[in-house]
Amino acid sequence: MVPAPMPTPIFSYRKFWAECFGPAPELPMSRAEMDALGWDSCDIIIVTGDAYVDHPSFGMAVIGRLLEAQGFRVGIIAQPAWDSAEPFKVLGKPNLFFGVAAGNMDSMINRYTADRKRRNDDAYTPNNEGDKRPDRAVLVYSQRLREAYRDVPLVIGGIEASLRRIAHYDYWSDKIRRSILLDSRADLLLYGNAERAIVDVAHRLAGGESINTIRDLRGTAFVRKRIPDGWRTIDSTSIDLVGPVDKPISPYQDTSSASCATTAAAAEEETQVVTLLDQVADDQPAVIRIPSYEQVKDNSALYAHASRVLHKETNPYNARPLVQSHGDREVWLNSPPIPLATEELDWVFELPYTRLPHTAYGDARIPAYEMIRHSVNIMRGCFGGCTFCSITEHEGRIIQNRSEDSIIREVEKIRDTSPAFTGIISDLGGPTANMWRLACKSKEVEAKCRKLSCVFPGICKNLNTDQTPLISLYRRARELDGVKKVLIASGLRYDLAVETPEYVEELVTHHVGGYLKIAPEHTEDGPLNKMMKPGIGTYDRFKAMFEKYSKAAGKEQYLIPYFIAAHPGTSDKDMMNLALWLKRNKYRADQVQTFYPSPMASATAMYYSGKNPLRRVSPNSDTMPTVKSLSQRRLHKAFLRYHDPDNWPALRKALKKLGRSDLIGNGKLHLVPPRQPAKRHQRVDPGSNPFATQHNGLPRTPQRRSTKTRR
Question: Tell me, what CATH number does 566's domain have?
Fold first, then answer.
């Protein structure tokens, strides 16, 4: 395989001539603002489904400021009305291209609950107002832009486009949809973190190159009529056979002496032999053909197979291009982008953001901004590989780190410039709180590895798990003048945390605001294996450390565990056992998360196909339990809320069906009482004081809603 070339650093391009205008106080959203800046036109216009907040946690701000730093004039059209093309003409015709993104969240997840009910609010909209973006926003915005300016190049990106780059299962219509490239009629799709690609696209278009000839950029997808001459096409079934297997062999067995660690459990879980074709001749580029849209639409096993192959081809240092036919057209995915180096990431996060919403919004509240305005993103990516999560598919498994000095400078900027700062940094984190500076110990191994996770079924022996640099960062941040407290609000990977007890001690002693949210997700091995999450024993180990160090610090602090209902691979019995665990540990979940099948996630392939893409897939392979009916999804959710009288009738029926009528009664060991309370909405926990308002000093667990800021 040809080694990935070293990319051009994103800050080293020769700047476009419009650099002479200098950075704008805030990127313009109107012609009047353009006139005030002395612009006769924009070079690039970004259309987004979020309100425009000039903060590095908002994708359109990062891309806009990044392109501005390259010398381009960038305008923003935020949350336009979509009933006609006129709102898309407000800034005129751009000289180079339109960039389109749905926002920091997928528009469908933003607008609908896991039960497909319409939400009435939107945290990324002024005053939390709903219905300010359309369903499938990238498609709608793209169609309106084609109506407004048919000849202007159209580039789509962000998480919505990224997760729909191939044929994908759409939960809301319950069918397989085509690649978003075809329905949007976009010229180019940028997937993942798109800084490298967007900068290169802008400079090449500015140099006179046609958008239709830009076909060599990593992290891009596009439509072509046929495979170019000189390319070797590899059928995906030749590297991941669709059929039975004779002997379990680790798919991570490499062709060289260096390989990632595996365990017996991994071999059992991953039973497919994958032949790595790293020996393809240097002068013979290869592309992997995955099953076509028509095939995956009609054959769920092939859908699961295609998902498995795609996830195996996500390491930027060994991934090969993929191609998927849609009728007579080919959707081509180039290899993933090379991660940003620390110097590049520092540069991106230190661009001249105001860290404020656009002044056009006045005093309107934007909840998503208020949640993160005093937080600092210290890294990108996640090597956890949780099958229900889209972070890995979007940001990759290789952690991209900011330097400690850059992080501290951002904390100081918040302290010195934010009028609302009270001395509390709300988070130093990212997709995961404690993966900063964690990486494979060997670059050679990392370049060859195809593991879906570095921490499942156990922590890879080649993974550096030392979190002492993070301890140093926390201490330096909290010792700054004017900083009273630094909280850690990002999700904690507790199986990593316990590898460095000093980190747990530092975290618990100084950086927990009374409650710490963590996500064991379940207690039973069946669903946990399908999630690629550690066993509940690891949670118990972390909990013991948490309580030990809280007591030593003289603090009363609590863990808030999150759990998922109705995940693929979960049975009614699994949920019953989880409810019993919650009962024993005196947890009450006021609001809970039901599994939400997001496009391209491995768990979504499980949900749709009933097959397990973590293993070799065939039409005859075992079908795993999937929870699809609304009644069963509600039952699984009811088990998490075993204390709610409204759920008791359904739980009694389920317990009897499971042969566990012994759990119905009024004792402390019972799950639900035999009769409803006199007052319908009075919550009575069997075996407890019905008039108690506290829960033995333990908190209710709040709702988790997928509002993480992701580009």
Answer: 3.30.750.200
